[in-house]
Amino acid sequence: MAGEVAASTNATSISTAARFNPSKSVQRHHSSHHRNSLTITVVVFSALAIASILYSFLTRQLDSKGCREIWLAPSYARISSFDSTHTRFASKYGLYLYREQGYDRLEPNGVPVLFIPGNAGSYRQVRGLAAEAAHQYYDTVTAKGSYGDGGARNLDFFTADFNEDFTAFHGRTLLDQAEYLNDAIAFILSLYKTSSYSHRSSSDFPLPRSVILIGHSMGGIVARTMLTLPNYQPDSVNTILTLSTPHVVPPATFDWDIVRIYDRINRYWRDSYSEKLVGRNPLASVALVSIAGGKLDLIVPSDYASITSLVPSSNGFTVFTSTMPNVWTGADHLAIVWCDQCRKAIVKSLLDIVDVREPTQTKFLSTRLQIFKDIFLTGLESSTQRRAPFSLVHDTLLKVQDVRSIFVDSGRRVVLRGLGKSRQPKAYLIPIPRDGGREDFFSILTDQKLEIDGKDQRVDILLCEQPQENLDTDHGAFSTVIDISKPDTRSISFPCTNSAADKVVIPASAKGTLHPYDGNTFSYIQYRLGEIARYDYIALVDSYTTSSPGFVFAEVVNNQTYRYEIEPSFIRLLGSRSQLRLPPVRSGFVEISARTAFGALVSYKLQVKPHNCDGQPELFGPLVRQFITDPNESKFFPDASEVDISFYGSSPFVPLTYRPGVNNNLKLQMWIDPTCERPQDVHLSVDIIGSFGSLVMRYRTACAALPLVITAIVLLIQFNIYDSEGVFVSFGSALEIFIRRALPILMLVSTIFIIILSYLMPASTLPFLEPEDQLSVNGPSTGPVYRYIRYNNMFLGLSDPQMSFLGPLFFTIASGMCIAVYYTVVTILLFVANSAEWFQNLDLTRRRTRSRLLSYFWVENQRERLYVNNNGIAAGAKAIFAGACSTITAFYFSVLSGSRRLLTTFILLISVLAYVPYQFAFVVGFIVHINTCIKALRIQTSMRSQNGQFNMNFSNFAISILMLMIWVLPINIPVLIVWVHNLSVRWNTAFSSHHNLLSIMPIVLLVERMITGKMIPRMTGRFQIITKILLIYLIIYACLHGILNAYWLHYIVNIFSFWLFIVYLDLGADRVMFGMNLRNCFDGKFDKRP
Predict the structure, then answer these.
(1) Distance in angstroms (rounded) separating the CA atoms of residues 313 and 774
(2) Checking DSSP bridges between strand 763-771 and strand 491-498, what pairing results, if any?
(3) In whole angstroms, what is the distance from residue 677 CA to residue 596 CA?
(4) N or C of the chain: less Cβ packing under 10 Å?
(5) Which residues 6+ apart lie within 8 Å of 491 measured at CB?
(6) Are the C-beta atoms of residues 444 and 361 closer than 8 Å to each other?
């Protein structure tokens, strides 16, 4: 039945021509089959593409879930004194204080921390972090005294109950939460001034003047918004941690307020670090750290968590949970707040930055940032500051016997298989080469834990100078003395610095290791020779006195021989894989740079071929680290043989930030056992199917924007035919014309446009400077460099011309979606129409009336077939037919009187103005228009039973408008959900936004006009030109900005609806329902002569 409706207009013209020109009929029959086959091809291709994307998203390139579960004893104390005298949102929101049972006392007595839940989040999500904070402080800090600087204190976790508000959908709600939390901070700080709450152990410590903020999801945006509002108390916030927060791009762009708020706060944060505000920067002391969960987060794309374009590296950074030492796993959107490994690292960092001796309750900004980097980053970053090489004092004295065998030849690697074999401590002194390049480095890898204050049986890595005489060892000059000399032999003493402070903990890799978070770890140390030029030896001390399993591997790595590059382009990698063969004699540490791999939309497969070592056991299995430098994303793959590679590099719609000479492409670091002198093959190829899944998270909004483009083009085709021929073809027929003629052009234009944008995207200098990351011998360089930003916020947000094929792909998918939705909608509408017709036929009176009305059409059709020559009779037939049309229209539509329609419309619009959002009126209009389409189809099917070639202009027009509204509906639903949610929590205060009558009145008026069943008149001249201009504007805007600014699509459709309403009024809307030229009602014409 849906197919009949879609092809009805063509059926009329083909049937008429068939009686006079059979050959032309056959030709059109073949043409129709060709169009149908082309349409089916597009639908099948779209279905396969969508299925492949979803299959890839759900099954390919998935990170393993390694978060451990937790057990808690939570309790929540509502602070009822924070009432309407302190905030106007007291009746809607609530403030709680978390207390861990058995640890925390009821009153707050520590450092205040405020947890902000995200979109539809619960205040109870704080329990994972708060409970861990209590356990770490009371079990570790208090019991063991591990924080000896005197500034340590427990954390008081406050949390806000937002009744699970939808902040991602509604900007006004986000602002309300930010305003409420600023009021809450003022109240929280006042608690510590009240004697009943002041239980701090020493009155010498200043009272808190700031609060640490932790925001989950949209809670992070709320936290950043707080600092921009008028009721924010200056310096009341100086540390913000965000978890899975979309900082740069709103996750849903259906609300104008959300987009505006994002633009405003991001501009505020960027401008605050501008050179013009140096010394007056309101955010100068604020540290912002963004933690992302990676591919397991299926709610917020982790690309959006990057803050590189918002703050300089001196004030914050972005890190992934897979990067954090001893975490090494991704986290989904909810798990990131309770993941055991992740919360331990977060809480440790918070306890480390606390210093209650300061009014801010935290250490200075630079110290805070360094603590965060030490805990959250791998330590393998080029910007990592080494401690031991720049230590001003020696902490370890090494005394060894004067035996030349302990010295290792310069340039020779040291391999210890098994420890304590000599049953006594032993040292190995490796001379630091003086003829090597300053960028060459010394690399040490061991499966032993390197600790400064560990047990006696351990491995130590020391940086030592030349031996000296008369070293003072009796007055505490050295904190540690390692004496492995024999009493009866001459000994020599080396002043040394223990390098354990510079160790990097990486996952252990052995045969059968599946995941990096399985538990065991390696210790890795790396020094550039330029950094340790002041020292003469690197000492490896094996202090074990019994034989123990383990290994130590140390070598000097040449800067020119450990780096490799993979050059093939993305296009070449599509058809084949890139192979790299590592030589038999090589270093144990290798770095591979894939210079063409920098886009987040492409996933790869890495294969590390195993080698045969002739039965010799390997020291460790191949360990691979994939990483990019900005943001700080790393993944480790132990015992690597075949690895899925996906990363968050250059991402759609995320501003591209870079510094001159810095390449943010994919890099691979590999630790491979070099003692097995066999070639090692490494293969890298594109995972085509696995790459499809990356499109889902980035282009969810495109499911509404791009089909709207296709719908607007189809409407343009329909109006062109209608205005020229008087026939408003069906949406399906016009869609076939679009696929045959316009779709290839659209695909070509989109391809060219993406290529042009990738080279011509606007670039500007960010308003802040920062030092280079490169380390010199004397420490970090302080030379400022400019950071640049490129905006890729148009169309698909692509910056890589090699991704230009995505334009044609998305437009083809959008065409298939339009076809599928159209036929689905028509089928449902016809089913409802036929069902209603069947039920009404049970009423004998209505059935007889309908039969008498339809007899008019049958009689006039027979008269026309007799070719009546009398003009008077022909004119009479026309009059009878027109009367029949008007009568049957009234019979089916049962239109309300004009005054009653006006009253209903007026009540709806007044409701929008007073209380309900205009999205509610849109949904009401959408439902009413569905009813209009059903009635039009009922008339259409009734008349087709009398004459198979009856014109169906109005029903085609009504369904086309319905298709337009279908793609706008998802843009309006989210705000409506927020309004309904507010009703459910008994928050009856009207929205302060979304009450603009002009945002919905044209759509309501157009729907009201179409209730009468009257067809829009044909247009000529300026009316026709304006209609085309509006549709072309909708097409262009939806293409360029529809994904990032979906809310504006509603406004454009609203403007277009206003224009159609004007056309109804100005061009005479009193035509009968089908608006056809009566000469075209039947196969022939009334005035045709035989």
Answers:
(1) 13
(2) unpaired
(3) 30
(4) C
(5) 399, 400, 401, 402, 483, 485
(6) no
Beta bridge partners of 1026: none
Q: Given this model, what pLDDT does residue 470 score?
A: 65
Residue, of 1076 and 1036, whose pLDDT is higher: 1036
Question: Which residues have CB under 8 Å from 930's CB, separation 6+?
Answer: 829, 962
The whole-angstrom distance between residue 272's C-alpha and the CA centroid of its chain comes to 25
Neighbouring C-beta atoms of residue 140, cutoff 10 Å: 15
- Alpha-carbon distance 389 to 535, whole Å? 8
Largest Cα–Cα distance of the chain, in whole Å?
140
> By the 8 A CB rule, do 1063 and 1021 touch?
no
The CB density around residue 409, as the number of other CB atoms within 10 Å, is: 7
Say which amino acid occupies 679.
P
Sign of CA dihedral 509, 515, 520, 526: positive
Q: What is the pLDDT of residues 634-656, one digit of tens each?
A: 999 999 989 999 999 889 999 88
Q: Which of 606, 599, 601 is nearest to 578 (CA)?
A: 606
Contacts of 309 by beta carbon, 8 Å cutoff, 6+ apart: 248, 270, 654, 655, 657, 766, 789
222's tokens: 């709320």
Q: How far apart are CA 448 and CA 1087, in angstroms?
A: 101
Can you tell me the distance from the alpha carbon of 367 to that of 384, in angstroms, rounded to the nearest whole number? 14
Helix 806-841 to helix 918-944 angle, to the nearest 10 degrees? 60
Cα–Cα distance, 44 to 50 (Å, whole number): 10
Separation of alpha carbons 331 and 243, rounded Å: 10
Instruction: Indicate whether 878 pLDDT > 70.
Output: no
Q: What is the DSSP string of 497-520?
A: EEGGGG-EEEE---TT---TTSS-
Q: Which of 8, 56, 210, 217 is catalytic?
A: 217
Report strand pairing: 480-483 vs 316-320: unpaired
Give yes or no for a contact between 123 and 193, defined as CB atoms under 8 angstroms apart.
Answer: no
Would you state the structure tokens that stand for residue 161, as one six-digit string?
A: 């109950």
Is this prediction's pTM over 0.90?
A: no
pLDDT per position as a tens digit, 890-912: 555 555 556 777 888 889 989 88
The two tokens of residue 711 are: 């719908």
| Torsion region of 164: left, alpha or beta (phi above 0 gives left; psi -120 to 50 gives alpha) | left
- What are the residues facing 433 on neighbouring strands? none
Owner of token pair 């009024």 = 1065
Phi-psi region of 235 (alpha: psi -120 to 50; beta: other; left: phi over 0): left
CB 836 within 8 A of CB 830: no
Catalytic (active site) residue 217? yes
**DSSP letter string, 557-586:** E-TTTSEEEE---HHHHHHS-EEEEE-SS-
Structure confidence at residue 143 as a pLDDT band (50, 70, 90): low
Please list, in sequence order, all residues whose beta carbon lies within 8 angstroms of the beta carbon of residue 964, skipping any fewer than 6 positions away.
708, 711, 712, 715, 1053
Crossing angle of helices 702-725 and 1047-1066, rounded to 10°: 20
Give the span between the Cα atoms of 250 and 228, in whole angstroms: 18
Beta strands in 791-902, from DSSP E residues, in sequence order: none
**427-442 per-position pLDDT tens digit:** 888 888 877 666 788 8
Instruction: Check: CB of residue 1060 under 8 Å from CB of residue 1052.
Output: no
Which tokens belong to 267?
């501009």
Q: Closest Cα to residue 287, out of 373, 393, 225? A: 373
pLDDT tens sequence across 575-620: 677 888 888 888 889 999 988 888 899 999 999 987 677 667 788 8
Specify the pLDDT at position 771.
55
Three-class HEC string of 258-274: HHHHHHHHHHHHHHHCC
Q: What's the chain's Rg over C-alpha atoms? A: 37
553: its two tokens: 């591997």
- Residue-wise DSSP of 883-918: HHHHHHHHHHH-PPPHHHHHHHHHHHHHHHHHTS-H
Average pLDDT, the chain: 82
